[in-house]
Specification:
This protein is mainly alpha-helical and 172 residues long. It has nine helices and no strands.
Length: 172
């Protein structure tokens, strides 16, 4: 037994010197224990949205305060509710992760440990809730008047004059 351990340590030593990381196999997709999947899912979400702002920014592209404000808006205005298997925060995190990383269904399934059907159902629920909040999130633009004194708009006026002069020279 001691001889086997010495051989294993002798083989592992070059790997530890060169900093080669041996990847762990992904077992959560095929494991049979529901408790293990639930624990891993909860720890994943908790570390993402309750950990640090840096981790939340990396995964969701917004800090925790903004994330919780969005969740509150979707709960109050958008009428979004969590269900018995996933919380509202998990649904919104899944939606934001997919949009911010431009990921496909399969990658989000693996990251959040959810099935494809559950992922798409949650994605569409959050999307519908966001559409109900459109009057708060999207503002109508106001027109700029001709007598506006702001320096930012004079360049657009000049560009419009140059374009109309160019059109007149091209079409006699």
């Amino acid at each position: 037994m001691v001889m086997i351990m010495e051989i294993i340590l002798h083989l592992m030593y070059p790997l530890s010197i060169t900093n080669i990381k041996i990847p762990k196999p992904i077992t959560f997709v095929f494991d049979n224990s529901l408790k293990e999947r639930l624990t891993a899912r909860i720890l994943n979400i908790r570390s993402m949205i309750q950990g640090s702002d840096i981790l939340c920014l990396d995964n969701l592209r917004m800090d925790r305060a903004c994330f919780y404000k969005l969740c509150e808006m979707l709960r109050d205005v958008g009428k979004l509710k969590g269900n018995r298997n996933s919380s509202l925060e998990e649904m919104v995190a899944l939606f934001l992760f997919t949009l911010s990383h431009d990921t496909k269904n399969r990658r989000t399934q693996l990251f959040f440990r959810r099935s494809g059907e559950t992922f798409l159902r949650h994605f569409h629920l959050v999307l519908r809730a966001l559409m109900r909040c459109h009057h708060i999130l999207l503002k109508r633009p106001t027109a700029v008047m001709e007598n506006c004194q702001d320096d930012r708009w004079k360049w657009f006026k000049l560009a419009n004059e140059m374009y109309s002069a160019w059109i007149q020279t091209r079409n006699p």
